[in-house]
Amino acid sequence: MRQIHTIEPVFDKNSRILILGSFPSVKSRETRFFYGHPQNRFWKTLAAVTGGECPVTVGEKKKFLLDNRIAVWDVIKSCDIEGSSDSSIKNVIANDFDGIFKTADIRAVYANGTASYNLYRKYCEKKTGREIVKLPSTSPANAGYSLERLIACWSVIKGELI
Questions:
Q1: In this structure, what CATH number is given to the domain that contains residue 138?
Q2: Residue 101 domain-assigned?
Q3: Which domain holds residue 43?
Q4: 83 vs 63, higher pLDDT
């Protein structure tokens, strides 16, 4: 079914890194914010990496991201997708990242998983001229990674946030 991304990116002039997902899950579309599924480990991972408290509400999550100089969005503006399955994504129209790159001093772009990495490389990298670094997905579907292993891998972002 055709879906249109309706969640605005989170960033400001102080953002230093951009973390990209592929497309919001069904749960994220319902909560109208990124990584809304309670089993997704995105917020726990970032809280551990930054040494902060894990945000709960949408307001807390936005503040957490901006306070830590983290921008978040997704690669896809619209696509055909079945449920939340990245493997079902077809007919992609990518988001335009010019606004983020013109506003913020983004030093690095990170992909939350293989799907966002591959989609960015296919649809966006040439246009943005910016490479992307693949991090393991925080999705509950990525059961091969414990929270501790995710935190260890995601710690690479700390150097860009200073």
A1: 3.40.470.10
A2: yes
A3: 2-155
A4: 63
Q: What is the pLDDT of residues 77-107, one digit of tens each?
A: 999 998 888 888 999 999 999 999 999 999 9
- Please indicate, yes or no, if residue 33 is contained in any of the structural domains: yes
- Split into its structural domains, the chain has a count of 1
> Please, which residues bridge with residue 3 across strands?
79
Q: How far apart are CA 139 and CA 25, in angstroms?
A: 10
**Per-residue pLDDT reduced to its tens digit, 106-136:** 999 999 999 999 999 999 999 999 999 999 9
